[in-house]
Amino acid sequence: MLEHFCECYFDLSGPILCPVLGSITPLFIPNSSIRPIRLIGLCVSLITFLYPPVPRIQFDPSTAKSQFVESLRWLPYENIHLYMGIDGLSLFFVILTTFLIPICISVGWSGMRSFGKEYITAFLIREFLMIAVSCMLDPLLFYVLSESVPIPMLG
What we know:
Layout (H helix, E strand, L loop, with lengths): L1 H9 L2 H12 L9 H17 L2 H6 L8 E9 L4 E7 L1 H20 L8 H20 L3 H10 L2 H4 L1
Helix pairs in contact: 2-3, 2-6, 3-5, 3-6, 5-6, 6-7
EC number: 7.1.1.2
Protein name: NADH-ubiquinone oxidoreductase chain 4
Keywords: Membrane, Transmembrane, Transmembrane helix, Ubiquinone
């Protein structure tokens, strides 16, 4: 059972899906209760921060190949796959992103009186996009995700 947990924990889906699921959760909380929305955003970003150190420990810097590679048939009739993996540079960007997002949410903690739900949702969606861009090996999805990163800032 522990081996199955470790296999699920080491993959790249966790740090990518955690902010997505966390950005959906505040949508069910009323705007009047800002404290739970802030706590959910901070907790989700901290949980996402706990994922990347595990691949960093098992990362092999002696090879230039992508590691922790995952492939999922996304649009099989167009031969488009969700193809993810990390190398040394993308691992650094994933760790940097997951380190900075909780800090950004903490800095905006007191100023989040109105539009708190939108603030937290935008930060978590942005975190998802930045992590996905760093891990994406498919050129089409890399382009689409990299062009999508500025969108939450415009809201």
